[in-house]
Amino acid sequence: MKPARLISIAALSLLAVLPARAESDLARAYQVIASKQYVDLTHSFSPDTPVWSGFGQAKMTPMADPKTHEPYTIAKDGFRSTYYEMVGQYGTHVDPPAHFAENGITMDLIPLKEMILPLIVLDDTPFLAKDPNHAFSVADLMAWEKAHGRVPKGAFVALRTDMYKDWDTNPERFKRQPFPAWAFETIKFLYEQRGVTATGHEAMDTDTTDKMDSETYILQHGHYQIEVMANLDKVPPRGAIIVATWPKVKNGLGFPARAFAILP
Description:
Layout: H1 3-34, E1 38-40, E2 59-62, H2 74-77, E3 82-85, E4 93-95, E5 116-123, E6 135-136, H3 138-148, E7 156-160, H4 166-169, H5 171-174, E8 181-182, H6 184-192, E9 198-201, H7 213-220, E10 225-227, E11 240-245, E12 255-256, E13 258-262
Parallel strand pairs: 5-7, 6-8, 7-9, 9-10
Antiparallel strand pairs: 1-13, 2-3, 4-10, 4-12, 5-11, 11-13
Helix pairs in contact: 6-7
């Protein structure tokens, strides 16, 4: 057999193997992921959900036939549906850059690869006994890195404050001002010195003050954030993966999100 023909046969054999190998890699990856523990990082929301007073409560009513104005029911129509009236920044939600930046990308344009990321959880709770409104500082971050290692580039970094526990049991307490959150210099450090992709937190705002320095910085520098996160106390400091999803609203400026962690 001629050498050229041998090379052609070998090349064809390799091409036949590559897709199967890739499929096998994905199958193995899924087997690993499926065997892990999942933690929901998202609150359920309702018309009674805590929300910024400038937005107001959501309204959820049975959807009605626009001609008869009669609500659809399973008994009468075989189905039912709900009509939602609410601001995008409601419950656990995504803030895309366009929320604060005139030329920022909207939520439908956030790359898919930025919606599944390594998850880092910074714990603010040890400081709250002495300072219930503690702003997580760069010094706090340095101490965290000394214990757990450097925050990796491209990570999603979430701030644990355990505020989420008031969401259902004491919603008025959840809306308190001030509250524990990020220090502005820490947000800048994470994005500029550690190269993180996105950040999130449990409160309805990024900053401990009403200046909104941190949120403005994040969104005007092309990043997104997830606000009103839950169950961060059930996630290890590092090693987990976050999957953050939301509806693909064209030119959307924010919407309730569904985020969950896959534990190592």
